[in-house]
């Protein structure tokens, strides 16, 4: 099963012709997850040929406009296109009021169910789980309540060693038990151990999203050994004082978090519109952490 991330918007508060505001689409184990939904996210989805009617889950980091202003329009479009399946929205307290008050004012009839899960500002823990994945949230350090998210695959079944299985002579009806890790005894008294006829499950992968935040070491424990980490890097080091004042991070600070968390790869984002080039972001981050990426909108990453 695939696990990948499409960067729909990599800019900060002010959208530009080159970079939209924050939004990402994650596909994990056939689940479609939208993280944040800045202005014009649905246009970015059309531009990059992303199917948005399949989104089952929306994760919102915080209620600043560059992370949520695209959500009312996206939901309205989903309705106009005939969506019927429910959608779950997870985010800070106030998310439900933000959306429903706008729908009430414009007379929008919501033709499909929206399920809201609102988080306390200091909440940390599990916010979603099914048979394939689990999602945990943790608090970031920004001017208003802001949440980071980590998506972890659950281990799948073991993989059948067909040659070894065929040599046992037992019925194929036992395969499901064997790949689920069970040892079996067939009707003829033949015992087969799961580990003798199967391979270990494929390694699980993980992705973490750290939206707007000042440099905040307490998040490191939630990011340990993550395969792919997104961390905002609004500024470069010479604007570190400005970063501190606005509760944002520099590229070096993002790289330091990645290094201390033992992340495998790092994506930077939320770039201030003041920068015409992101070369300095990349160079500064790579002095701390080697595997850094500065994405363009529309860029696609396998986790």
Describe what is shown at a glance:
This protein is α/β, with parallel strands linked by helices and 303 residues long. It contains 11 helices and 18 strands. It starts with a strand and ends with a strand.
Total E-strand runs = 18
**H and E string:** EEEHEHHEHEEEEEHHEEHEEHEHHEHEE
The mean pLDDT is 96
What percent of residues adopt helix (DSSP H or I)?
Answer: 25-40%
Task: Give the CA-based shape.
Answer: globular
Major beta sheet summary: 7 strands, mixed
- How would you classify the quaternary structure? single chain
Question: Can you tell me about this structure?
Answer:
- The chain is built from 11 helices and 18 strands.
- The protein has 303 residues and is of the alpha/beta class.
- The strands form 4 sheets. It has a 7-stranded mixed sheet. It has a 7-stranded mixed sheet with strand order 7-8-9-14-15-16-17, covered by helices on one side.
- Helix 4 links the parallel strand 5 and strand 6 (114-119).
- Helix 10 (251-261) runs parallel beside helix 11.
- The N and C termini lie close together (11 Å).
């Amino acid at each position: 099963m695939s696990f990948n991330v499409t960067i729909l918007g990599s800019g900060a508060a002010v959208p530009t012709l080159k970079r939209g505001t924050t939004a990402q689409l994650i596909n994990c184990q056939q689940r479609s997850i939208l993280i944040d939904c800045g202005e014009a996210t649905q246009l970015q989805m059309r531009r990059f040929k992303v199917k948005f009617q399949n989104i089952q889950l929306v994760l919102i980091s915080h209620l600043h406009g560059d992370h949520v202003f695209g959500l009312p329009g996206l939901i309205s479009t989903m309705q106009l296109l005939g969506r019927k399946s429910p959608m779950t929205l997870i985010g800070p307290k106030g998310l439900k009021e933000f959306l429903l008050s706008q729908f009430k004012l414009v007379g929008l009839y919501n033709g499909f169910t929206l399920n809201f899960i609102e988080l306390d500002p200091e909440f940390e823990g599990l916010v979603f789980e099914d048979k394939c994945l689990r999602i945990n949230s943790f608090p970031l350090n920004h001017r208003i309540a802001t949440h980071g998210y980590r998506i972890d695959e659950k281990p799948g079944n073991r993989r059948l060693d067909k040659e070894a299985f065929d040599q046992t002579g037992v019925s194929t009806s036992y395969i499901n038990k064997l790949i689920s890790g069970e040892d079996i005894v067939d009707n003829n008294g033949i015992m087969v151990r799961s580990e003798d006829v199967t391979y270990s499950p494929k390694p699980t992968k993980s992705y973490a999203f750290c939206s707007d935040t000042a440099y905040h070491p307490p998040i490191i424990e939630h990011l340990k050994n993550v395969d792919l980490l997104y961390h905002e890097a609004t500024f470069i080091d010479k604007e570190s004082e400005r970063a501190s004042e606005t509760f944002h991070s520099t590229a070096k600070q993002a790289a330091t978090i990645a290094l201390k968390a033992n992340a495998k790869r790092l994506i930077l984002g939320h770039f201030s519109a003041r920068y015409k080039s992101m070369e300095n972001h990349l160079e500064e981050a790579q002095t701390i952490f080697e595997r850094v990426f500065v994405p363009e909108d529309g860029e696609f990453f396998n986790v």
